[in-house]
Structure formats: structure tokens, C-alpha cells
Amino acid sequence: MNKSDLIDAMAAHAGITKAAAKLALESFLENVEGTLKKGGRVSLVGFGSWSVSKRAARDGRNPQTGKTIKIAAKNVVKFKAGAELEGAVNK
């Protein structure tokens, strides 16, 4: 399912226009992104939670040449599925 398919499904399920569903989805995504940028956490009970974790700088290896390279530190987004979501997927 891509973004367009999700918008169509949301509109059909909620009985709203595709424009309203698109606006709702974009608002949700912007709010999640904004919260994560500030270092916060987004939690939807039963569905899951998003958080930001810091990955330290480290040495890596170029697979083509075998040469050691430096990999910069960065923030990574993590998602942990909630119990209800995991239960629904594993039925």
C-alpha cells in the first residue's frame, strides 16, 4: 500500500472525501515528524510508538575496496509495534 492507496482507503472507511483524508494524513505525518525532530516520542496505544535514537560514529568498510571508512553519527527513527498490532499480524 502506498500513500495514494492509504488515502483512498481512509476516505472510504471514514466516509469522507479523498481531499479530507489526504489533509488528515499529511497533518498526522507532519505532527509525527515535528515531534521526532524535537526529540520527543509518539505513542499510539495498541498500534505502536516512534522514537529517536542516537547512533554513534563508527568505522565501516567499503565492500568494493575493503578500505576502512568513517561513518558519521546520526539520529535514527525507531518504531516498536504495540501488542494489538502484533496480535493482529500474528493471527
Automatic annotation (TrEMBL):
<dbReference type="GO" id="GO:0003677">
    <property type="term" value="F:DNA binding"/>
</dbReference>
<dbReference type="GO" id="GO:0005829">
    <property type="term" value="C:cytosol"/>
</dbReference>
<keyword id="KW-0238">DNA-binding</keyword>
<dbReference type="InterPro" id="IPR000119">
    <property type="entry name" value="Hist_DNA-bd"/>
</dbReference>
<keyword id="KW-0226">DNA condensation</keyword>
<dbReference type="GO" id="GO:0030261">
    <property type="term" value="P:chromosome condensation"/>
</dbReference>
<dbReference type="InterPro" id="IPR010992">
    <property type="entry name" value="IHF-like_DNA-bd_dom_sf"/>
</dbReference>
<comment type="similarity">
    <text>Belongs to the bacterial histone-like protein family.</text>
</comment>
<dbReference type="Pfam" id="PF00216">
    <property type="entry name" value="Bac_DNA_binding"/>
</dbReference>
<protein>
    <submittedName>
        <fullName>DNA-binding protein HU-beta</fullName>
    </submittedName>
</protein>
<dbReference type="GO" id="GO:0030527">
    <property type="term" value="F:structural constituent of chromatin"/>
</dbReference>
